[in-house]
Specification:
Length: about 350
């Protein structure tokens, strides 16, 4: 975002506007944290008429974040959400890079005449926004919201609600400050958010230490299913719909499980394949260490994308066939995987 862009956005926001904020489908901590953080800021800065509209439901461990109760869900409140989108002056699109990432919201967003402002850190963004703050080096969209508020000269408006929201997304998208996208600037911002009232202990507890017994049993099942392909320095996990049902699966229960594969000594590529009979797909999450790009792997083979070290994708084959396909493409990556 250029200085001129910031000046223009500041001018647009200087009068009261109808604003909609949208994250990607299956929102994660960064998606919910950034949309609600921006929501609180826009309310506080000029009492704009603001709504956060998510494409669909999100994990239970995010449902305590300040402003959670105001969130509208497009899949269950479609008409009300479409009306707000059609009536909006401004639509902020956060934590995604192409309208199709919002699932069924794609067409109503694409048709909207509102000013679009994209704030996002994914690779290869589409060109739909009048104002674009796109930076793949950023740890999280939440960090970018902090920078955005800073560029508008408003960090004095950051209160404990905004600080809490932004802390959540920075924490979850950096794997609790361990991924290489975590910089000294990230830590400086985190320090400021704590000063503004983010309770780091409570946030970590709410996100990571609220497991149900069934969720831990599901994790046990996933770890039993873990397989290693040593020559490709790869580990993968499968979870069938029957297994999910057996352990009383709830949205969010599989979040983070893929990282156990990557925690194996010597492994640089990890995958999880999760059967979703409702959607008729196998949902794929890929994680890597070093320079191996799972974004490229997912774009090439699994209709997805994301970041160098974390990407998502899908397959319309059966769970078994999807795993067969994954194993069959690994040899072509062996050189890159063994160079890590
Ligand atoms: P997850 O495996 O947690 O679903 O996704 C990992 C990362 O990749 C997240 O940042 C997510 O937003 C991104 N991602 C997941 N699926 C897709 C996709 O289909 N396309 C793109 N561009 N990014 C994705
Ligand atoms: Mn993100």
């Amino acid at each position: 975002m250029t200085k001129q862009d910031i000046k223009a956005v500041k001018h647009i926001l200087s009068t009261k506007k109808k604003i909609v904020i949208v994250p990607h489908k299956n929102p994660d901590g960064d998606a919910i944290g950034s949309t609600l953080g921006l929501f609180h800021y826009l309310l506080k800065s000029n009492n704009h008429k603001v709504h956060v509209i998510v494409p669909n439901d999100y994990p239970f461990f995010l449902k305590w974040i300040p402003g959670n109760d105001t969130i509208l869900k497009h899949d269950s409140q479609t008409k009300a959400c479409d009306d707000l989108i059609n009536d909006a002056d401004i639509i902020f699109t956060l934590d995604f890079n192409a309208f199709h990432r919002t699932g069924n919201m794609e067409s109503v967003l694409a048709k909207s005449n509102a000013i679009k402002i994209m704030i996002d850190h994914h690779q290869a963004p589409d060109d739909y926004a009048q104002y674009m703050f796109s930076d793949v080096s950023m740890s999280s969209t939440c960090q970018m919201i902090y920078h955005f508020i800073d560029m508008l000269g408003d960090t004095n408006l950051i209160d404990s609600d905004i600080a809490t929201c932004l802390y959540v997304g920075i924490m979850t998208d950096t794997g609790s400050f361990r991924f290489s996208s975590t910089t000294s600037t990230t830590h400086t911002i985190i320090a400021k958010l704590i000063e503004k009232g983010a309770n780091n202990t409570a946030i970590h507890n709410n996100i990571y230490d609220t497991n149900s017994y069934a969720r831990l049993q599901l994790l046990g099942c996933a770890l039993t299913n873990l397989r290693v392909v040593p020559e490709s320095r790869t580990a993968y996990i499968t979870l069938s719909q029957d297994e999910l049902q057996k352990y009383d699966y709830k949205k969010g229960d599989t979040e983070g499980i893929v990282n156990y594969g990557l925690s194996l000594d010597g492994v640089v590529l990890a995958a999880i394949f999760i059967e979703d009979r409702n959607e008729g797909i196998i949902k794929i999450s890929l994680r890597s260490k070093g320079n191996f790009s799972v974004n490229e792997m997912s774009r090439a083979h699994f209709e997805g994308g994301g970041h160098t070290n974390a990407a998502g994708g899908k397959s319309y084959l059966s769970l078994e066939k999807t795993v067969e396909k994954f194993i069959s493409i690994l040899p072509s990556y062996n050189k890159a995987l063994n160079d890590e």
